Give the backbone structure.
Amino acid sequence: MLSNEIKQKLITIVGKENVEDSQAVRLVYSYDATPQFQAMPDCVISPRNTKEVSEILKLCNENRIPIVPRGSGTNLSGGTCPTNGGIVLLFKHMNQIVQLDEENLTITVQPGVITGQLIQFVEEKGLFYPPDPSSMKISTIGGNINENSGGLRGLKYGVTKDYVIGLEIVLANGDILHTGGKLAKDVAGYDLTKLIVGSEGTLAVVTEATLKLIPKPKTKKTLLALYQNIDAAARSVSKIIAKKIIPATLEFIDQPTLKAVEDFAKIGLPTNVEAVLFIEQDGEESQVDKDMQSIEEICLLEGAVSVQKAKSVEEAENLSSARRAALSALARLRPTTILEDATVPRSEVANMVKAINEIAKKYDVTICTFGHAGDGNLHPTCTTDIRNQEEMERVERAFAEIFEAAIQLGGTITGEHGVGQMKAPYLEWQLGAEGVAIMRSIKQAFDPHNILNPGKIFAKNTRKRLVVSR
Ligand SMILES: Cc1cc2nc3c(=O)[nH]c(=O)nc-3n(C[C@H](O)[C@H](O)[C@H](O)COP(=O)(O)OP(=O)(O)OC[C@H]3O[C@@H](n4cnc5c(N)ncnc54)[C@H](O)[C@@H]3O)c2cc1C
């Protein structure tokens, strides 16, 4: 627990009402959306501005108190679990849109702004902020930046890092730094903006961000391609891209996920097929029509049993919301849901789906798969029960083998959810000892006393690698 002296100093900085340390509040912030991790913080603090963040960090640095910056806690890597106790830093007061600059096509926001609200705000002005994680109704921009989150539109438009062009950050010692800005070009020294993106709260606290906007596409069309064969679905993905068509969205959903989503959303999704591709294209109407026509032809040629086009904006929105609800729908099946994000080159999607299904069978666990097929970013999702230790051990071995399979196929252990605490033991598999060492030295330079989100990204012990041949 924090000493009374430290608590009093924190109250002096942010006011009594913004320092909470009751058992109930600490319990709420002891976990995030990742099921396996929990640890109690000592205190939860809600600063109102950058100066207060700076004073808190200075105090914590001098007294070696861990700080866990937290948006909405929707990360899926144990990234906001207060592993070493200390302070959880909330941004509920720092949630303002600071400036929309229509001449430079940028928006400057505080970290607590909700992603979906930002997207809606700019779309009302005819502008577009593409990164759209499925959690966008609750996730914050601060969280998106620190996880470098992707979304359904990643294939065509890229991910969060492609839109963050300037940051205000507070370093562990309390110094306030500005990186980048509204500039389209800036090569003055190392790109600190991009270094902070995806740093999972371990290098600095983001207190303001300038994001790039683009014009809103004029129109959008949606279709579902239905398959009785997963290979045919995966082949269609590669063939669409090989035809030089980049859809705005190209999502894969397998049958168990479809059934769970339909049961949840009740919008008439087909549940008697092995898989569907959910495809959207946006842009100028004539081009969108041409692309959708070609996509339909490719899907049918590659073995889709049928293609269904959304007949209205409402139907298209329902399909999109249903896809975004996949995790929530699967979470209703059993007490514990573990969602992963192993990612492979697009051309290996079929092999990865096959590997996931074989591994699930081998370990006798239920794994449903959906995800951003166009990015090769799949979400094998295990519905299980954390209270059954024997089953959890099988689940863990299955996921270790899934990560191994992804790496063997030229992929990565995480495409968008970050390393956090969950993937830390596997990081060396991906980067090698030298890769981890250089990252540790960057962490040391930014945060020599390891107060910023300690226990994340870098594990004490690396998992022994499995040797899998398939
Ligand atoms: C249903 C569901 C669907 C999801 N879909 C997607 C998806 O499609 N794509 C995707 O990429 N992810 C997805 N996620 C994961 C998650 O929503 C994202 O990682 C999101 O960016 C987290 O935002 P958050 O505000 O909840 O951040 P948190 O979970 O609170 O924090 C995430 C990380 O950012 C750090 N952080 C937060 N704010 C700051 C700050 N101001 N300064 C420094 N560090 C900070 C935290 O310490 C932590 O390391 C999904 C999660 C759920 C539950």
